[in-house]
């Protein structure tokens, strides 16, 4: 499963599953809208620990890369290590910039949304135990320094949200 973002007037497809053995892809592909060309970018997909690190877990058991773009900078949520990473476009590597909100709980990335909203990154998710839990919305403005998450809203929920889409902000 892959994710897609627009950045620097180009479209990027990051990660995915490919080949006859359904291997998790670590590359990304850049589509230049003006030149109408595709370019493969090695190791553009942020590290994924579930499908890549656990031999018993199928590649489809893990959520697509949790990525978002703010001010033409690519960020990723590493749900396993609870970290936020930023992609260094020149060196083509991921750098850890800080932590995710403490209560951003997921199941192999499912149940956690990571999106851009203007100049902010938004994390939607929350703790769940014994059929009770909360959905929280946290925000951080990357241009203001290392992650300091602000809780915007919290709602009690007895259900697990496997996936959600943020349609606009």
UniProtKB/TrEMBL annotation:
Name the keywords, alphabetized: Kelch repeat, Repeat
Keyword Repeat assigned: yes
- State the Gene3D superfamilies in the record: Kelch-type beta propeller
Q: Which domain of life is it from?
A: Eukaryota
Q: Which SUPFAM superfamilies match?
A: Kelch motif
Keyword presence, Repeat: yes
Q: Name one Pfam family in it.
A: Kelch_1
Q: Return the GO cellular component terms, semicolon-separated.
A: nucleus
Name of the protein described by the UniProt record: F-box/kelch-repeat protein SKIP11
UniProt organism field: Prunus yedoensis var. nudiflora
